[in-house]
Design a protein that fits this description.
Layout (H helix, E strand, L loop, with lengths): L2 H8 L10 E6 L6 H12 L5 E6 L4 E3 H6 L3 E3 L6 E3 L13 H4 L6
Parallel strand pairs: 1-2
Antiparallel strand pairs: 2-3, 4-5
């Protein structure tokens, strides 16, 4: 990931026809879910796929998960947690045990 940003920063060719654009939306204030859905619709009309993350200041969530209106996986430096509010819901956040409970399988 990040080939477009790498190419822009380095000047070295890295983008392929299949490359997506990694986009970070810095939002220290909550982003309404309706606005998230509108942004997703706009991004879907672009000729390239866009992988959008929202940086909440406490971690990041995917724009698609937030727009879907459900519990989201907040990726933080201290590890991921599931929460309904990635801006203010850390007190009620829970570890995503269902993801890690089984360990790695071969």
């Amino acid at each position: 990931g990040g080939s477009v940003g790498y190419e822009l920063a380095s000047g070295l060719p890295a983008v392929k026809e299949s490359s997506d654009l990694d986009l970070i939306l810095r939002r220290p204030e909550p982003l309404p879910r309706t606005t998230a859905r509108e942004i997703l619709e706009d991004l879907a009309s672009l000729p390239a796929r866009v992988d959008a993350q929202i940086d909440t200041g406490t971690g990041s969530v995917t724009l698609g998960e937030w727009a879907a209106g459900r519990e989201v996986l907040l990726r933080r430096a201290g590890g991921p947690v599931l929460t309904e509010d990635p801006w203010h819901g850390l007190a009620s956040a829970r570890a995503p045990d269902d993801i890690f409970a089984g360990g790695l399988t071969s």
